């Protein structure tokens, strides 16, 4: 017999966006239920094993629950976060899962049910609803039937979009549809072969320091597929790409690695087809693990107890899905919305029909598509900042979370209304966490105001997010602890015409976010080219004397730009031996 529950907000799926949405919604005060398939919340950040977040690494973008998450990681992760060269933050997935679990369990109005998947979406079950009303009212699972005022789709593949017959996309759009320069003019072999980006079944290796337990030979020999995996990098740099604390190594590698894209349409086919794909993807990653152990060094073996399955603790609970079914929303994010303004560092702010800024989340990842053995060119979307390359900031409009003609429903994952091309920027962990927070806040406000998502004033949503230190305007020189942070966010919401292509506050301030934390060194400064900086340490006992200097704080970036060659400087911060850089938290 099904257990019947009623709540204000139902979040289906325990991915990054769904988990964050449920936490924000409950924190706002709404009665919330989150239903996840697996025993960990957090999605990409935890259960899918991609505990090396990409994007939003600049301090000005470390806001809201994303900034809170980083602070929790720094306080809990033994060994620190500076280990890989793919990300400024790597940690053991268990650490992240514990944070999400603690957040959820601390909220008495949040009920978390695991081990369930959606089977049916209910529409118009309210007897008072008019026949023409198109409203989602609840979801049936294996053991539960849950009705809610607002339902959020936080599944990895947009399952509720299909079950609820809500208009959505899957696959490519041609250039003419959205006038996207990177989109193909006609459907071609690439579109057919890879309708969406390839997933990866992530696993962790462990350095045992001696001969590791042997990884059994897989049933299918995939070794020819992996030859050349570390060409251009070398074995150790290849491994350090996803180096975690405590001698763990994340394998989520695109070049002759474990991306798997064979007949991707099976992911939205029958349950049998989907299970077949998932089994193949995991076996493919198993083959990659065996290849690495036999071709790099036998001291590397499958990690123990990295994930909760005691018999299979090296492999993530499910694949890292880069793309989902995508909502057809009231507004669709396309390539032009994520590209920087001409000769600028930031994308233009999105405006609604009233001329209001309707941005509700900020991100800055570049644009990155994964198709095994294919190099797909995209319009450049990067800038040099703080001594390194990073993505140009952009925003997510609220209307990208709302269906065209369905009430009682929001999306909060990679299933937002976005084109296939632009999805390469919107799919990353910090971005999805930010839009999840916005969706959760919107759902709670809809309950408070007794209105539908389409009727929620966007400014009311923005104000609620700002009060929770969640940025809606990208301002590169506005750290979240700056005293005028809220004032500056509101200023550009009210005056979008004054938002410049450099993405900075016009008003100067003497405030500095620099902190004397980490290691302290003195040395000689050297600028290489336009935006690359080095320090030669004064302490000659150090094995490595020359380090690249990089910054995430605007005051440090400003100082690096104007520092004179051969000047002796003093720096505080963190060394990253995999990347060969020093993250400068303070410079004198």
How does this model look, in words?
It is a single chain. Helices cover 25% and strands 19% of the residues. The model has no long low-confidence stretch (mean pLDDT 95). It is an alpha+beta fold and 588 residues long. The chain is built from 15 helices and 22 strands. It folds into 3 domains: 3-170 and 326-498, FAD/NAD(P)-binding domain, CATH 3.50.50; 203-302, no CATH class; 519-587, OB fold (Dihydrolipoamide Acetyltransferase, E2P) (Beta Barrel).
Write the layout of secondary structure elements.
Blueprint: E1 3-12, H1 16-28, E2 32-36, H2 64-76, H3 93-105, E3 110-114, E4 120-123, E5 136-140, E6 144-153, H4 159-163, E7 168-169, H5 175-178, H6 189-193, E8 203-207, H7 223-226, H8 235-240, E9 243-244, E10 248-251, H9 271-295, E11 300-302, E12 326-327, H10 335-338, E13 359-363, E14 382-385, E15 388-391, E16 394-397, E17 409-411, H11 423-426, H12 429-449, H13 458-466, H14 485-494, E18 519-527, E19 533-537, E20 546-551, H15 554-562, E21 568-576, E22 581-587
Helix pairs in contact: 1-12, 12-13
What key attributes describe this structure?
15 helices; OB fold (Dihydrolipoamide Acetyltransferase, E2P); alpha+beta; seven-stranded mixed sheet; about 600 residues; FAD/NAD(P)-binding domain; about 20% strand; five-stranded mixed β-barrel
| Percent of residues in helices | 10-25%
CATH level-4 homologous superfamily of the largest domain = FAD/NAD(P)-binding domain
How much of the polypeptide forms β-strand, as a percent range?
15-25%
Q: Assign the CATH topology of the largest domain.
A: FAD/NAD(P)-binding domain
Give the averaged pLDDT, no decimals.
95
Number of domains: 3
Q: Count the helices. How many?
A: 15
CATH class of the largest domain: Alpha Beta
Number of strands: 22
Using the alpha-carbon principal axes, give the shape.
globular
CATH architecture identity of the largest domain = 3-Layer(bba) Sandwich
N→C terminal distance: 68 Å
Low-confidence stretches: none
């Amino acid at each position: 017999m099904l257990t019947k529950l009623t709540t204000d907000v139902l979040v289906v799926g325990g991915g990054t966006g769904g988990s964050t949405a449920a936490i924000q919604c409950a924190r706002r005060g709404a009665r919330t239920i989150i239903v996840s398939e697996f025993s960990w919340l957090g999605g990409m950040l935890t259960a899918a094993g991609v505990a090396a977040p990409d994007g939003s690494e600049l301090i000005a973008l470390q806001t809201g629950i994303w900034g809170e998450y980083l602070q929790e990681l720094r306080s809990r992760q033994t060994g620190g976060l500076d280990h890989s060269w793919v990300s400024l933050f790597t940690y053991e997935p268990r650490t992240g899962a514990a944070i999400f679990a603690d957040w959820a369990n601390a909220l008495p109005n949040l009920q978390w049910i695991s081990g369930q998947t959606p089977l049916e979406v209910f529409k118009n079950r309210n007897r008072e609803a008019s026949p023409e009303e198109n409203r989602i009212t609840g979801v049936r699972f294996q053991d539960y039937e849950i009705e809610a005022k607002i339902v959020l789709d936080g599944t990895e593949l947009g399952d509720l979009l299909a079950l609820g017959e809500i208009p959505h996309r899957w696959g490519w759009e041609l250039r003419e549809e959205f006038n996207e320069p990177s989109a193909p003019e006609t459907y071609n072999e690439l579109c057919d072969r890879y309708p969406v980006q390839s997933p990866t079944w992530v696993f962790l290796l462990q350095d045992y320091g001696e001969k590791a337990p042997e990884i059994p030979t897989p049933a299918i020999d995939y070794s020819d597929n992996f030859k050349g995996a570390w060409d251009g990098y070398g074995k150790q740099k290849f491994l350090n790409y996803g180096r975690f604390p405590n001698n763990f190594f994340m394998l989520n590698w695109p070049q002759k690695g474990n991306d798997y894209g064979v007949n991707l349409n099976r992911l939205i086919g029958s349950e049998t087809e989907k299970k077949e794909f998932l089994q193949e993807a995991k076996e493919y990653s198993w083959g990659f693990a065996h290849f690495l152990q036999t071709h790099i060094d036998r001291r590397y073996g499958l990690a123990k107890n990295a994930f909760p399955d005691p018999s299979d603790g090296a492999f993530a609970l499910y694949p890292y899905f880069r793309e989902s079914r995508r909502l057809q929303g009231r507004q669709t994010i396309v390539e032009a919305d994520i590209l920087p303004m001409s000769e600028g560092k930031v994308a233009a702010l999105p405006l609604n029909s009233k001329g209001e800024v309707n941005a509700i989340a900020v991100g800055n990842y570049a644009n990155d598509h994964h198709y095994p053995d294919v190099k797909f060119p995209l319009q450049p979307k990067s800038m040099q900042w703080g001594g390194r390359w990073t993505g140009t900031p952009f925003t997510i409009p609220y209307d990208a979370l709302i269906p065209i003609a369905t009430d009682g429903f929001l999306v909060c994952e990679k299933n937002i209304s976005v084109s296939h091309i632009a999805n390469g920027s919107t799919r990353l962990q910090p971005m999805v966490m930010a839009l999840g927070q916005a969706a959760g806040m919107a759902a709670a406000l809809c309950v408070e105001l007794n209105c539908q998502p389409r009727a929620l004033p966007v400014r009311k949503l923005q104000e609620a997010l700002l009060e929770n230190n969640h940025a809606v305007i990208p301002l590169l020189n506005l750290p979240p602890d700056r005293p005028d942070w809220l004032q500056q966010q509101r200023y550009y919401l009210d005056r979008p015409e004054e938002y410049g292509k450099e993405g900075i506050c016009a008003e100067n301030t003497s405030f500095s976010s620099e902190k004397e934390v980490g290691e302290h060194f003195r040395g000689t400064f050297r600028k290489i080219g336009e935006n690359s900086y080095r320090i030669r340490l004064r302490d000659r006992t150090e094995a490595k004397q020359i380090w690249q200097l990089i910054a995430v704080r605007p005051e440090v970036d400003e100082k690096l730009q104007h520092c004179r060659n051969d000047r002796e400087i003093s720096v505080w911060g963190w060394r990253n031996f995999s990347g060969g850089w020093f993250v400068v938290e303070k410079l004198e």
